[in-house]
Amino acid sequence: MTFLTLFVVIPVVMLLALWLARNDSQVRGVMVVGSTALLALAIYLVLAFVNARETMPAEQYPFLFGTAIPWFEPLNIYYRTGVDGISVVMLLLSSIIVFTGTFASWQQHPMQKEYFLWFTLLSVGVYGFFISVDLFTMFMFYEVALIPMYLLIGVWGTGPKEYSAMKLTLMLMGGSALLIIGILGIYFFNGQFSGQYTMSVVEIAQLHAIPAFIQKIFFPFIFIGFGILGALFPFHTWSPDGHASAPTAVSMLHAGVLMKLGGYGCFRVAMYLLPEAAQQLSWVFLILTTISVVYGALSACVQTDLKYINAYSSVSHCGMVLFALVMMTQTACTGAILQMLSHGLMTALFFAVIGMIYHRAGTRDVRKLGGLMKVMPFLAVGYVIAGLANLGLPGFSGFVAEMNIFVGAFEVNDTFHRACTIIACTSIVITAVYILRVVGKICYQKVADESFFKLTDATWDERVAVGGLILCVAGLGLAPLWAQNIINDAVAPMIHHIMGTGAVAGM
């Protein structure tokens, strides 16, 4: 068993320690120690992965640090783990969000112990999903990640929290039903045509035994199943309501990490294991993802609630991830993974700052806020930086990701793909409209209410969360090559595998 399993073991130990904790101080201590250990482990993994990759030819596509422990051998179901460049950066992102989310929830009440128990269980599912290279194991951890969301929103949320929690749960469970159909289809038909029944992602890809006509049947189940979590239009409607009602740290983990399971699954499972179907059906999902990108940005323009603005912005940015993936060029897909990393950081920063403002001002209504730069300058600066990263200002993480996406998308030399790219590019201007409008209104106009002068700025724990995310957003924007190189090395052989079976099918 490799050290990758520590990403699951540490949160499980945290669950036990939280259960035994007797007061809020002990609960916070467990979370700080555990989240710090996970962050340190993720940093160590990045360094170890880079060092290991330097000794291997670039054309190889190994999952490093892997292990395989049998769970149910008659069906060849194993606890298989391993990481490539994509999962390495996703594990690092998850660790950053869990760490900063701990400090963002420092003053979470009531039932802080129970809150952190469910929060940690959610992180178990996220970590387990990203280290898994077995379809059964991935699906199991995927479900573990979804289940706590219902209680975290339904119990600790705000507004119509019961409705939002139920809507989110039903939509995502519907996606899970599609996924299990697709996974079983891959398992049985791969075994039927290859003679080897396996749940291993690597083995299924190497066997490449499923005929194209069967791939076309199961590809929509997998892509839509994961796409629902990635806010694919028109299955995105759970996302804004869920974000708006979720507690601050849950919104951070939800938008920052959980939604990334959708894009990751679409690429790793749907496109990689069913490449012919990915090519032949890509135009359908390109239309849907183009709509997601523009629709999400336009919807954000007409919102008045800060969380809904960021939620619809997430629909647009997560749509951009799926948009880049179905372009199936190396540059675009590298940009898609960078966008997952960038969006995870900047949307976590957004939700952290919004939650802190709401805790003080008692409202998220843009029309009732104003003058925050004078009243709470640290939080206002954090909001401005998140907004500038969101609209893709050079120097921040969003610019690097979007440049790769749109340059890579324009490499596909046909009218349909380039028309979709141009339409998607309009989201850059639309994003600038709603970001600059909101920043100007809540930060720089006169103080909306005299009572706001009595409000305090960020406390030390909030400064740790916000400051850490700002450093990450700026750091990735100013020095992106380390992440881009790690991601590109993993994306290149996957794209070669997907595109090695033929040309991209147009309309």
From TrEMBL:
Alphabetized InterPro entries for the sequence: NADH_Q_OxRdtase_chainM/4, NADH_UbQ_OxRdtase, ND/Mrp_TM
Broad EC category: oxidoreductase
EC annotation from Swiss-Prot or TrEMBL: 1.6.5.-
Predominant localisation class: membrane
Keywords, alphabetical: Membrane, Oxidoreductase, Transmembrane, Transmembrane helix
A GO molecular-function annotation: oxidoreductase activity
Domain NADH:quinone oxidoreductase/Mrp antiporter transmembrane intervals: 132-417
Stretches that traverse the bilayer: 33-50, 62-79, 85-103, 115-133, 139-156, 168-189, 217-238, 280-302, 309-330, 336-358, 378-396, 416-436, 464-483
Subcellular location: Endomembrane system; Membrane
Membrane topology, as annotated: Multi-pass membrane protein
Family indicated by similarity: Belongs to the complex I subunit 4 family.
Protein's name in the database: NADH-quinone oxidoreductase subunit M
Organism of provenance: Hallella faecis
